[in-house]
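Retro notes - structure team

What went well: the batch runner handled both jobs without manual restarts.
What didn't: labels got mixed up in the shared folder, which is why I'm recording both outputs here explicitly, each with its sequence directly above its tokens.

Job 1
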Amino acid sequence: MHSQNILTRLLPLFSLGLALPLEARDATDFNITSLSATFPYPGVYGVDSVNSFVEIALSYPDPASSDASLTTTCRVDWPAGTPPAATAWAACADPDVVFRIASLTSTNNFSVGVFQQRSVDGEGLSATHVLTSNPGNPSDPNAYMFCLQKGKFNPLTCSLTGPYGSTPRIVEMTSVAVAERPA
């Protein structure tokens, strides 16, 4: 009788013990704190040929400190008449950080990648994240952007303000240590 009573009291503690990690984990994050983007908007009232771009403000870990962070801006461009597509790595304002559009399904659904070189032999931190504009589904975990065509004959503009354009968002990207910058 007593053993059953003790067991029922200890059983909830076992699941807690199993849920704890076996080792301490360092989660280093890149945070996109703002995004500005312009894309062509085809159609009768859109603009097919526009200089397109995606520009982000990024905070990331300072390799010289265990608890400090640095900030930089990064930008990729497409000339007018060129449909936006995945890009090669582009240098950010901080030369140790590069940025790219890793994949682009549509102008309001793409994946961004960042890489911070931390040693002379090319080792560094890498992170990617999908960014989507999805006003029809505000519970979409990737719906960080709000995209809008602002009147006739204007391009599509996007910002990091959530599915309805009313709440500024920060995109937290967990990084992984890699031996070299991803291809």
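Job 2
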Amino acid sequence: MDGSQAGFSSSVDNVFQQSLSTDTQQIGDWQDDAKTWLQDQLEDSLSVEDDDLDRHDCMLPLVHLIERAAALFPPSDNNAQMLDWMARMRVGVESSQVPKVVRLFLVKAVVHVERRHAQRLPATQPQAQGLSQASVTEPSPGVFGHFAAEWFPAMMSAVLGNAEEAAEEGIHYLLLDVCLTCLNWHTLFPAVHKASPSLSPQVKVAADALMDYLVRAAYSPQRQIVNNNFNLIKAFIHHWRAAVPLPLPALLSLLGAAPPQPSSGAPDARAKMKAAEQRCVAMKLLAAGLMYGQWQALMTHPDFKTALKHVLDCLATKGGQMLAQQSGECMGVILAQHHRKSKEGVHLEWGRTPEELQKEVKHILLGVHSKGDHDR
């Protein structure tokens, strides 16, 4: 071998050795980092273990894997498309060809990732003091919230049951967890956060289906559950405003509730109480919708005339203090909106002017009061 070849060979050896040394150091650094991360995960646990899905051996590793993937390739509002791993996961949640239990398992993993992300925010909040107030108060969309327009319909398709059976099934705790998660995804609520000009067709369909189910499932014999259900629906009413109005047919299923007629005799007191409580829930929701910007969608709906008749019937019915108070409050909101819109030149096809409706309400109240005096 001549000198030039020997020199060239020596140079290649040096470059190779340097490269090998660098690669070995990088591999060592990566192994140390991976070892530290894996050790952290072994000491980690889910904050809530509600059911067999949470207790499954694969749930925590899947949550860790998602969090690691999100840390290596963080989503942002600038990303137009989901990464492949997330897109494939969404297909698994949405596809009816995937077993139901697998879809729910993936939904649970999404909820845990988003919940854990939200729990970490208070620790990082002090670092945002130098930012503008808008950036501090704007909710964080989390890992999946950056693609809420795709994930919200997928998750709704997995967790929503049959709306016709909602009254019997109620609001399942998994559906509740998903709702609370989605309420933090500000791009779903342009009316409040001005994140986007309007809802996409897919989100609108899923949102309408969700509201229909929640309203039909709102009633429960337990008052605390009723209050929780009302607060949940009210939160969506406040966030969506007129973009997703309350479904009047679903409201009418509660508002027109009547105790079943037994084969002999009058309905028992328990059946009467249930019907009265269902009506109260419906009137409370109707009043909330009217106060949170849904008046046009509700009061111009063809079924609103029927809803108004039911509220007037409740007002005229001697059904206890709760029914009287709720029907009075609901009618007060209706009258206030009717007067306000009439002054603005808005004509509502009810067959009554605001003055005529107010006169009818006064007549009903005087009749109820006189009947009460007579009964005493």
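One thing worth noting from job 2: Residues 89 and 106 are 8 Å apart (CA to CA).
We'll revisit the folder naming next retro.
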